[in-house]
Backbone:
């Protein structure tokens, strides 16, 4: 009974940190969208919708590396291979730095081409260019932040990880509103960059602690790289499909209706993305499960599986209930005032709410197969 209590207690602690970390990834986008709607107006909100596929795809690339690194690190730790664990950490830092640099370069060079393909011009295009000129610096460091965040949680300091995850959106709200009112779209972008830099600084405090066992070793191995991609791809595939879906839907709406209905899509994309919190159960399990598997503790694996399933089912029904009740009020957070747009947004939210219990179950099944 004692081992069960300690195991589930540790799982619940990591789950809380992981849930906040997953929500923060989405809140960064949602906060900027909401602040833009209030500070800039509907053109600014439409601009945030246009870049949603780009930001969604960056979440995919970040998660593919960070999740792959954290799972392989936990696996090596569970097998008591300390040197191999340190090599995985070093390789994770290298790969996340490369992903950040490639993302920065792609946004810098290819953003005008993307906007041409989408058929965006005028004030909306100008807002996109201004915002992304600052946000690309956040995309440069974000992969490193994600890797450190997951590994620090795996290293047992979920409190510091949670503190960083809480500080990031709160500071983003403060800086984005303050700077947005003074500098417009550029200020909102600057607020996001500043909050991420401070959150990364909070994570770095872990390496000053005597509890830290994270020691990176310079390393690259193709077999480890394939393992990281395998783990990361299977867990992050949703974030590859969603941006592609967002791109297609946004393009169709612009072609048929112009930019008038883009604020509705912004609300729906926000709701769809925030349900990635269902993946947080997997984040917590992948930290503990490899250790149990390394010890061949099948009973602990079974107990943890049952416990995680109950939590995910609760998440699914809770989200569904909240969306059904709050559907009429959620669009107001984006400062949408047009009656037709409000009605369309609320209808879409209620339709999506029905799918939440199924999505939560699918997220856990994906982890089991992985």
Residues:
């Amino acid at each position: 009974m004692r081992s069960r209590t300690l195991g589930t207690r540790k799982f619940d602690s990591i789950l809380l940190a992981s849930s906040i970390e997953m929500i923060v990834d989405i809140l960064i986008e949602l906060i900027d969208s909401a602040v833009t709607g209030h500070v800039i107006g509907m053109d600014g909100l439409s601009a945030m919708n246009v870049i949603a596929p780009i930001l969604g795809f960056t979440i995919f690339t970040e998660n593919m590396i960070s999740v792959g690194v954290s799972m392989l690190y936990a696996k090596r730790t569970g097998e008591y291979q300390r040197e191999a664990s340190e090599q995985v950490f070093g390789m994770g830092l290298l790969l996340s730095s490369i992903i950040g640099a490639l993302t920065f370069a792609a946004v810098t060079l290819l953003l005008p081409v993307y906007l041409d393909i989408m058929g965006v011009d005028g004030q909306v295009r100008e807002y996109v260019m201004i915002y992304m000129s600052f946000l690309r610096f956040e995309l440069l460091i974000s992969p490193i932040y994600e890797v450190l965040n997951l590994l620090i949680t795996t290293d047992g300091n979920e409190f510091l990880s949670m503190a960083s995850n809480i500080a990031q959106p709160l500071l983003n709200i403060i800086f984005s509103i303050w700077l947005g009112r003074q500098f417009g779209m550029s200020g909102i972008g600057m607020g996001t960059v500043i909050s991420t830099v401070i959150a990364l600084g909070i994570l770095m405090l872990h390496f000053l602690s005597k509890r830290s066992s994270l020691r990176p070793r310079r390393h690259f191995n193709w077999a480890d790289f394939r393992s990281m991609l395998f783990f990361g791809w299977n867990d992050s595939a949703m974030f590859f499909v969603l941006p592609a879906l967002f791109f297609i839907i946004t393009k169709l709406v612009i072609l048929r209706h112009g930019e008038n209905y883009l604020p509705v899509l912004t609300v729906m994309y926000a709701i769809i993305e925030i349900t990635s919190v269902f993946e947080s159960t997997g984040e917590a399990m992948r930290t503990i499960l490899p250790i149990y598997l390394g010890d061949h503790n099948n009973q602990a694996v079974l107990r943890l599986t049952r416990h995680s399933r109950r939590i995910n089912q609760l998440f699914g029904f809770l989200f569904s209930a909240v969306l059904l009740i709050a559907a009429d009020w959620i669009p107001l957070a984006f400062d949408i005032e047009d009656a037709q747009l409000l009605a369309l947004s609320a209808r879409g939210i209620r339709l999506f709410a029905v799918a939440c219990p199924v999505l939560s179950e699918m997220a856990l099944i994906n982890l089991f197969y992985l």
